[in-house]
Amino acid sequence: MIREIGVMTGRNLRISLTVRSLVQLVITPLVFFAGFGIVLAQLLTSRGVPFAQFLPPAIIMMAMGFTTISTAFFIAADRRDGMIDRFRTLPISGLSVLVARLGADAVRCLVPIAVIVAAGYVVGFRFADPLGAAAFVVVAVAFALSFALGAAVIGLRSSEPEAIGSMVFLVTLPVLNLSTVFAPAGVFPGWLQPVVHANPYTAVVDALRGLAAGQAVAWGPPLAWIAGLCAVFGWIAVRAFRRSG
């Protein structure tokens, strides 16, 4: 099984890490970093929020969402081109196919994380210690992969890759907006704050900011969300793979 995963991960990386996709992985988060930086810098500073520490984790969360979209796109493309049918006829498990896809996506996630951390350092973003920096990367990638499993389900049920992006974006955008990714919880109306606090994006982005600043992190919510999403979406994705055709 390990050899199967290694071979298919290499195949996925060769397909998804083209020059064009690498340029997109670098340029897209930088554009959002600059755009949101211009819009939010003064607003956050006026509220006493340290802009340089607040924004990079937010953009990284967005970048992880783009990786989720690519997961659905590449799986849908494989389904359209008949690769999923070929995989199903081979003596390999559906889990191997999904793990290989996630392995390639984990590598893709590292590119925008490195880009945004570097851009953040220019405006004053800092990690308090190396251990916190390592945990920061692990948590960000793990969260991306938990959502990528959900995107895999969409990809396995669609044979039109071009329509995948808007579909996944429409699902994730409301969840992203109703979180502390781009605004502190206190900015939201009181009746909406319970929703904001219960949001998986809130749990993870707050953990990322705490890790970067060297603060104590409440590990329960982010780990519960990541593990829960992986378990639920992973189970559905394996069943969808077995039934796809």
Q: What is the secondary structure topology, with strand pairs?
A:
Blueprint (H helix, E strand, L loop, with lengths): L1 H15 L2 H28 L4 H30 L2 H7 L4 H30 L6 H27 L4 H17 L15 H5 L2 H14 L6 H24 L2
Which structural traits does this protein have?
single chain; 245 residues; mainly alpha
Structural overview:
There is one protein chain. The mean pLDDT is 85. With 245 residues, the chain is mainly alpha-helical. It is built from ten helices and no strands. The chain starts with a helix and ends with a helix. The chain is globular. Helices cover 80% and strands 0% of the residues. The protein has one domain. It is found in: Membrane.
| DSSP, total strands | 0
Helical proportion, percent range = over 70%
Characterize the overall form.
globular
Radius of gyration: 18 Å
What is the helix tally?
10
Quote the average pLDDT. Answer: 85
Percent strand equals under 5%
H-E string: HHHHHHHHHH
Q: Which class do the helix and strand fractions yield?
A: mainly alpha
Largest sheet features = none
- How far is the first residue's CA from the last residue's CA? 22 Å
> What is the number of domains?
1
Regions with little confidence, pLDDT below 50 for 5+ residues: none
